[in-house]
Amino acid sequence: MKLNDLPTNSTWTLARRAERMNPSVIREILKVTEKPGIISLAGGLPSPKTFPVSAFAAASAAVLANDGPGALQYDASEGYGPLRQAIADFLPWDVDADQILITTGSQQGLDLVGKILIDAGSRVAVESPTYLGALQAFTPYEPEFVSVPCDDNGPLPDQLDVARGARFLYALPNFQNPSGRCMDAGRRDALMNKAQEIGLPVVEDNPYGDLWFDAPPPAPLSSHWADGCVYLGSFSKVLAPGLRLGYVVAPKTLYPKLLQAKQAADLHTPSFNQRVVHEVIRDGFLDQHVPTIRALYKQQCEAMLAALDKEMQGLGVHWNRPDGGMFLWVRLPEGMSAIELLPKAVERNVAFVPGAAFYADNADHRTLRLSFVTSTVEQIATGIAALAAAIKDVTP
Ligand code: PMP
User: Fold this and answer.
1) Which amino acids bring their CB within 6 angstroms of ligand 1?
2) Is domain 54-284 in CATH 3.40.640.10, yes or no?
3) Range list of β-strands (E), the chain
4) Which of 3.30.1360.70, 3.40.1180.10, 3.90.1150.10, 3.40.50.300 would CATH assign to domain 16-51+287-394?
5) pTM, to two decimals
6) Most informative mutation of 50, 51, 107, 327 for ligand 1 (most atoms within 8 A of CB)
7) Which of 110, 183, 268, 273 has its CA 20 to 30 A from that of 150?
8) The predicted structure's pLDDT at residue 25
């Protein structure tokens, strides 16, 4: 019996979509890494140091004092009006508040998009590598994934023909999870011109765009072709992920279907959380708060790059130098597998995520993802030294 199957004598019969679901590879890996004393560079969590706890305490009290019954009542499926307006106001292209659907994390946005756009056997184009959570959200709708060839700057526009006829391209232009890469302005232009030329809609996922180090990334893909894009945003990385607060920006033609799917899924995102977030951000709070996250993550990223420069010399290991986000992408020397390296690394008290989990097909087994945000600078130095030692252990 596979981990996710029912016993053959079960009273229950699983739906085909449930049979396709798999336990998160990452969660399984993280279990291995829960041993005491391990330095985990594997997690995908934001740093809890960045959570503005006292702002939330004050905002919660204010919401309950000013609008307690509203905050505790059922709400509209579209979301809390003033929060939708605030989001429309801060997005950097022309968006109406009635195009905004508040979701229970952007992860729910991915599910709703899959629900209304994917039939069994539909082609869905993804980057290579791509966000594992999106593959998991779309898989129950039984798509056929098509990986678009990518370089360090994202999907290659002249390779987009492989995605002709797909329901959409799922794209992560800013500090991608897992690779940390960011598309430059020229790539965005060329990609969106080509997408429009072949009539390929784009689902743009942008939870990391605000976490830039020195300069903001170029304008969102959605600003190039608003009618052909669905945009997913999130408060998880700029405020706190436990709120489960994200949003979808949809073209007006698509909005009613997304709303019906949202209604059926959970009626609405918690009224209290929406009001509290609106209360926290209403007076420009993010303009002061987000720069503190950027500064912390930049410092941590620099510490990891310095440790890699020091420890990996002569080992034939390559890595990128992200300009923002939470992750850095490493490629091991030829012949080495990140999955095989992991137990050796765990023996030396350091953990990472093997990159293979992030590919829809043709996985590059030499890749791995490192998070630089939750460990201290000292832990990063120790962890990268341990990783280098593990690589030496398996070097022939
Ligand atoms: N998209 C990407 C690329 C992510 O990395 C994540 C979080 N790991 C999500 C979506 C989901 O974020 P949330 O549901 O917390 O908004």
Assistant:
1) 44, 105-107, 131, 133, 172, 177, 205, 207, 234, 236, 241, 246
2) yes
3) 39-40, 100-103, 123-126, 144-147, 150-151, 154-155, 169-171, 202-205, 229-234, 246-249, 318-319, 327-331, 350-351, 353-354, 367-371
4) 3.90.1150.10
5) 0.96
6) 107
7) 110
8) 66
